[in-house]
Amino acid sequence: MEYIGLSVSKGIAVEQAYLYAPLTPGDYLKRIQENNKEIHQSAQECFADALRQAKEELNRLLERVAGHSPEQAKILSAHIEITEDEAMAEDIRLALEEGQPLGEAVAAVFDTYIRMFSQSKEERIRERAADLTDVRNRLLRILAGLPEQDLSALPAPCVVFANDLLPADTAGIDRRNVKAIVTEIGGETSHTSIIARSYGIPCIVGVTDICKKITSGMLVIVDAVAGRVIPGPTPEVAEEYRTRRDTLLRQKERTEACRSLPCRLLDGTAVDICVNLAQITPEALSAAEYADGVGLFRTEFLYMGRTAQPGEEEQFVTYRRVLEEFGSKPVVLRTLDIGGDKQVECLRLPREQNPFLGERALRLCFAQPELFRTQLRAALRASVYGTLWIMFPMVGSVEDFARARAMLLEEKEALVAAGVPVAENIRIGAMIEIPAMALAADALAQTADFASVGSNDLTQYLLAVDRTEPMVAKYCQKYHPAVWRCIAMASEAFVRAGKPISICGELGGDALAAPALIGCGMRKLSMSGGAVAEVKETLMRRSLAECETLSRALCAAQSAGAAEELLKAFYAKGEN
Questions:
Q1: Which of 310, 355, 439, 516 has its CA 20 to 30 A from that of 63?
Q2: Residue 494 belongs to some domain of the structure
Q3: Cα→Cα distances 429→21, 33, 426, Å
């Protein structure tokens, strides 16, 4: 018998199972009720003490992981912010004043927020419910007088099975003994997925009720390449998977060796491999050592998880740091892309029926020009510290681009007039993610200095699929021939105009898709740092002629399935 889930971090493990089942909120509440008989403090004092202790625990955890796990540190920082949320704390204090029992008051207020976040249409906001759940459980555990539980010291190599893993569970995770992780819930952006990828631990999520099928100590196979969990395999099957595991590990070592090499096709064609940057951490900035630049610097992270907007000075300091780190290598700064699946508290945007088709990104910047101009001034001031390219998201027409460009040049003139140094060689470009701009790419190429295809949004708009909605996920087909035709059309238009064009969506870091993108005419791909080595290795085994042949075949394919088979066959041929 085998069970299927979503592979979020590739790899294979053959080890004994370890069923991780921490206490539930109900267990904590029962213990709190028992403890209340012996507590002489007021409920308000107990809550204040628990909040203080939770923050102290989180700060200790943050110190433990800050040096080696930026992703974990980011999540723990968000948890510290929750403990400092005065609105939530006040809701709990009011509930206590009304006579609600201490544990129940904490649980009820947190559960209200958790339900609200869980019902959001945006996946990133839904995933925030896990952060609230973790802080709730931490407070309840402290009120119950119980010690912390985590996965920091396991007795032997194992596969961890759990309903889900929260940051408190994985802080200081025993990376030596945790050989794989399997959870019943979670998605691509869940905490478990993020941590597993950052640590290189094979991981499968979304395996329904798997904890009911597993007992601690039983031998299990986790095939996080195919998304398969096999409990109690025969000795022959177990040995087969051990061989596969060892082969995969050797392959990863060979692939990793390509990370720092320049990317050249077999015929010598040069390809720039850049990284997408979403956070300013030591790990992210280390990409300057092996990448050809930043193909997408997502600036909206500065606005997230806070109640006040970042000022011009804060933005300037952040942009300057990135530009200095990458030096002569281009950094493509995408202006604010808020709305759709990215909502932020500090902007308090009105709720829209369909935010993906609403006032988002550049449209929002036009509606709130001072918000836009503040960012432009910060970027222009930072431009003298490196090689800055500025890119506008959600450009819907040539007029949109011209309007945004004019606003940028106005701010540049004002700064120069005030004696503020600004670089002369700033390139100004556009994201191609609205299908209309792929169709009108020839006109855009006459005015933009460069373009980058945002394949995630281009796919959802072209195929009329909300990419954050699980119910229609099967219709969001990134290999659909129509997507390839749009990409090829845009690429060819910019190549004819002698302007650079790249891609920075999910396809950019897809080793299957990379050769076809080069075949479309692109000479620059941008991706997460984790995808760089595999994409380089894949391209370095191919010639430009082969890539162009593949691109033409994809554009002529009759279905997404047929296109995917072409890509897989091409990839497999290159491995031989």
A1: 310
A2: yes
A3: 50, 61, 10
Whether residue 70 has pLDDT greater than 50: yes
| Alpha-carbon span 348 to 371, nearest angstrom | 13
**What pTM value is reported for the model?**
0.69
295 touches 283 (CB < 8 A): no
Do the strands 158-162 and 294-298 form a parallel or antiparallel pair, or are they unpaired? unpaired
CB-CB contact of 307 with 344 (8 Å): no
Same domain, 341 and 379: yes
- Model confidence pLDDT, tens digit, residues 396-424: 999 999 999 999 999 999 999 999 999 99
Q: Which two tokens stand for residue 319?
A: 């942009």
Give φ, ψ of 331 to 5 degrees.
-120, 115
Domain that holds residue 488: 257-575
User: Cβ(225)–Cβ(212) under 8 Å?
Assistant: no
Q: 89 and 227 in one domain?
A: no
392: three-class secondary structure by DSSP: strand
Verify whether residue 480 is a known catalytic residue: no
Q: Is residue 305 located within the same domain as residue 159?
A: no
Tell me, yes or no, whether 156 and 96 share the same domain: no
CA 488, 494, 499, 502 torsion-angle sign: negative
Last residue of a domain, one of 204, 238, 272: 238
Residues 193 and 339 in one domain: no
104-149: per-residue pLDDT in tens?
Answer: 999 999 999 898 888 776 666 776 788 898 899 899 989 988 877 7
Pair (14, 40) in one structural domain: no
Tell me which residue has tokens 């003298």: 384
42 and 13 in one domain? no
Residue 341 in this model has a pLDDT that exceeds 50 = no
Strands 228-231 and 3-4: antiparallel
Dihedrals phi, psi of 219, to nearest 5 degrees: -75, 135
Catalytic residue, chosen from 263, 504, 547, 555, is 504
User: Which tens digits make up the pLDDT trace of 296-331?
Assistant: 998 987 887 666 788 999 999 999 999 999 999 999
Q: Is 274 a catalytic residue?
A: no
Number of domains into which the chain is organized = 3
The Cα-based distances of 451 to 246, 433, 555, 567 in angstroms read 42, 10, 21, 25
Examine the domain organization and report whether 365 and 411 are in the same domain: yes
Q: Which of 46, 79, 158, 191 is catalytic?
A: 191
DSSP state of 332: E
